[in-house]
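FAQ

Q: What does a record look like?
A: Structure on top, sequence underneath. For example:
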């Protein structure tokens, strides 16, 4: 691991009277798997939206690979090397598995995009449903498709928003393996997940949000025993 690939600085986002992000700051070291946890509504998905340009910041900044990315359009941020999944999924139901991947090919040429798509489909074992409409996939299959779609542009950093939510234990283990595989190839991962086993077993560092603020940060073993974290999760 070397310096930070992602720097989040005093990021602020309001929705009307609600302060969804109240200025959290943290770094994601290059090559690490960092967990982002916190109760429902604490701002995790909004933070992903602010990092990837889906939402505009009201204050603060985000730097990626040493350069400011806040203010850029989502496609520009994606092309610089930031991939993401969406918590609720953004698959095109009436497109096939393959077409869903090709829809985000960005600067890849047709041939290379197809090769990349097939490689990813094979990686997660979706070969049999390559030409199936996304709407006909099982829940687990659509989680896998959402996951590999974030990898289409060969990201340097990938943001995963609850990649294993609602999947069975077998698929959960497979997803853990795929995320480890990303790290083994040098990809940096920032992951939101409620499954504590997933977070504790996988992450090098954990950042905890509550009401849009960072309330704790550290190695998973410390976070699990942090009183503010326990209070945020169980204290109300
Ligand atoms: P988390 O992912 O941690 O569960 P979110 O980032 O989705 O939390 O939401 C943080 C807060 O911001 C919540 O109170 C949510 O209702 C609110 N929020 C999120 N997105 C919007 C939006 N587009 N418009 C208005 N409020 C929003
Ligand atoms: Mg969320």
């Amino acid at each position: 691991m070397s310096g930070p690939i992602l720097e989040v600085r005093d990021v602020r986002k309001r929705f009307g009277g609600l302060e969804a992000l109240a200025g959290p700051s943290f770094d994601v070291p290059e090559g690490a798997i960092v967990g982002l946890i916190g109760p429902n509504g604490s701002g995790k998905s909004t933070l992903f939206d602010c990092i990837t340009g889906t939402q505009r910041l009201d204050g603060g900044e985000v730097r990626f690979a040493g350069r400011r990315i806040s203010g850029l359009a989502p496609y520009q941020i994606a092309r610089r090397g930031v991939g993401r999944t969406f918590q609720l999924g953004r698959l095109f139901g009436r497109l096939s598995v393959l077409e869903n991947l090709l829809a985000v090919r960005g600067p890849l040429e047709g041939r290379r995009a197809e090769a990349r798509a097939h490689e990813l489909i094979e990686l997660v074992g979706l070969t049999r449903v390559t030409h199936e409409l996304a709407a006909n996939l099982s829940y687990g299959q659509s989680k896998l498709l959402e996951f590999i779609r974030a990898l289409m542009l060969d990201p340097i950093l990938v943001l995963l928003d609850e990649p294993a939510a609602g999947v069975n234990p077998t698929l959960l283990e497979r997803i853990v393996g795929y995320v480890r595989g990303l790290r083994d190839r040098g990809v940096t991962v920032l992951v939101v997940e409620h499954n504590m086993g997933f977070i504790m077993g996988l992450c090098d560092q954990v950042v905890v949000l509550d009401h849009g603020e960072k309330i704790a940060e550290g190695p998973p073993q410390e976070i699990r025993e942090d009183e503010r974290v326990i209070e945020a999760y169980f204290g109300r």
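Q: Is there anything notable about this one?
A: The first strand starts at residue 4 and ends at 15.
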